[in-house]
Amino acid sequence: MRLDALLRPRSVAILGASERPSIGRSLIEALDTIGFRGAIYPINPRYETLLGRKCYASVAELPRDVDTLAICVNHARVLEHMRPAAERGVGAAVIFDGGFAEAGAEGRRQQEEITAICRDAGIALCGPNCMGVVSPHVPSMVYIQALRDPAQLPGNVGMISQSGSICIGLLADCRRFGWSHVVSSGNEAVLAAVDFLEYLIDDETTRVIAMFLETVRQPERFVAALDRATDRGKPVVVLKVGRHERTRRAITTHTGGLAGEARVFSAVLRAHGAIEVADMDEMTEVLACAQGERWPRGRRLCVMTASGGQAELILDVAAAAGLSLPPLSATSRADVERVLGSITGDGNPLDAWGNGDFATNFPHALSVLGADPDYDAVVQCSDTCDDQPMGSVDRMLTYARSLTDAAAKSTKPCYFMTTRSGVFHREVITFLRQQGIALIGGTRQGLGAIDRLARWAEPARALRGGAGKGRAIRALLGGCTRGTIHEYDAKRLLAQAGLPVVAERLVASSDDARAAARAIGYPVVLKVVADTIPHRSDLGLVVVGLRDDAELSAEWDRMARRLSDLGLRARAGVRGRRRPDRGVRRRVPPPVAVARGRCGGDDRGDSGGNVAGRVPGSAAGRRRRARALPRIPRRLRLGRARQPRRARRQSHRGENDWRGLRDRGRPHRAARGAVTG
Questions:
Q1: Kind of pairing, strands 132-135 and 179-184?
Q2: Which of 589, 583, 522 lies closest to 549, judged by CA?
Q3: How do residues 567-595 score in pLDDT, each as one tens digit?
């Protein structure tokens, strides 16, 4: 689909245009105000002309190949206009009204019909249930909000939001950064967030991308787009809601989307180079931080203030947020004290007030920090705001000049920071912007933004694949054709990609199995490995919690008989098949969710971490970390799993019943356990 028809239109038709105050009239006025240079076609059968332009009676009477159709009518009347739009070759459309998939079965049916029409005709549809799009550099605006000052809008941030109010909030303050494109995507009946993301990655006016997401459609494309954005050097800043159950229910009623598992999504973002933020303050400061000409290449920050108490507060906040503020080196400290006199603490944050001669002390302190190889970024902290009743703007501009002069002599990025988010002085912002210096706000949010951008810029991403993708798979296949790849080989591929996997051994005899189990350490899991057996636990070919050689040998013999009963034989070299060997792996104690492919992160709920054999620390600590783990789907949990009804009825009929029986008269461990085939 032609997204240029939507984001760089040459003509816009407005269905529902009117001379009275309305969305249609507001759109025409906004297009005029922003300076749209293309044709505008009002549509309303009540008028022959409207606001000085010819007015068309219906969509069917429009000139052919209009780029964008803005649909400003009630949701009940939208569908009747879509087929004429398709017949007239409309390239894109925006549906503002709600009442579709988010509103129940009838709305969902209407949205599905609209989607089918648009896909058949190649119409790039934004919405429904959205605010529209703004493209300040084109300039173009098909967006249902009044425009007052178009000069403030242009910038380098591309925004994609599944919430209209988020767009309204971010567009309300363009003091520190502006926009390349703003997209309110709504229900995403045709165009999803990933479509706009792919467009912005290739857009020359976009330097950084912001996304507010409730749900992610087409996750494979989304992940690939994140990788491509990283390769292109464009940070993608993501604010994803749905971390709690009540929020997830609200999302379904808002846009009809599904939120998904928050921790899994966070792990995906980290693995693919996106910058995740938790709220609007964090997002705004990362976008502001990215406005500097230089971006940080490391996380070691130094901060200069004019107050010892403020320095102490910053240090407390930074420590709680996990930010890196290394102490001042002995050499740099001596150089600073040569001019300022004795300084407090370990010198970072640096109280540079000294003897009170700020005109001398500030430039010298910033010069020393800018030259110190132990730091990756320099931050000057000072508070000012518009219409402040106290203090001098000239003094603030003098402070800002000290920073810009130091930045000119250093290769590091330098930042001016206020201690409260959103509190700035326009003259200071303008001056700093002219010098390529970003202004950030809020100690936690501002310093955190630098840290996030620094982490994004770190060169190595071990989990990301590079050139030559597929070589490991080709080597594994060895020239054979395999419809599926069994678990053991799949884990080998994951391990080669840098993902942690559980320690295991592939064995072909009972003696080898016992030797492997002793090497790994009991208790262990025993499972058959074969391309041709997808659901091994259902067939009684997985057993967990084997405690010694005797139990392992007994289960080995039972599995051998079971394979024979199923008609499976060990066959080597047969095209498209693999020998059903048996894998032995260590069972990790219950606090670790092995079946989920991870072990618990730290107490803060981090879903990252290395897979290990045991969770360190006390039993109570292990239980706390276990409670911090994300909930695991029932079919993957350790512990007793729900058996099929038939298995429960037959749980004592004999060892050869594959639905969950065990030779010792208790429910089969494959039915009880959580390591599924």
A1: antiparallel
A2: 522
A3: 765 332 222 233 344 444 433 332 222 22
Which one is the CATH code of 301-457: 3.40.50.261, 3.30.70.330, 1.10.3720.10, 3.30.470.20? 3.40.50.261
> In terms of residues, how long is the chain?
677
**CB distance 381 to 417 below 8 Å:** yes
Global confidence as pTM? 0.71
pLDDT digits (tens, 9 = 90+) for 80-102: 999 999 999 999 999 999 999 98
For 4-278, CATH number?
A: 3.40.50.261
Domain range 482-615+632-672, CATH class: alpha beta
**412 vs 406: CA distance, rounded Å:** 10
Which H, E and C letters describe 498-537, residue by residue?
CCCCCCEEEECCHHHHHHHHHHHCCCEEEEEECCCCCCCH
Residue with tokens 């990756």: 376
Give yes or no for a contact between 309 and 283, defined as CB atoms under 8 angstroms apart.
no
Report angle CA 144, 37, 69 to the nearest 5 degrees. Answer: 45
* Three-state secondary structure call for residue 327: coil
Residue 508: predicted pLDDT: 87
What are 294-332's pLDDT values in tens digits? Answer: 999 999 999 999 999 999 999 999 999 999 999 999 999
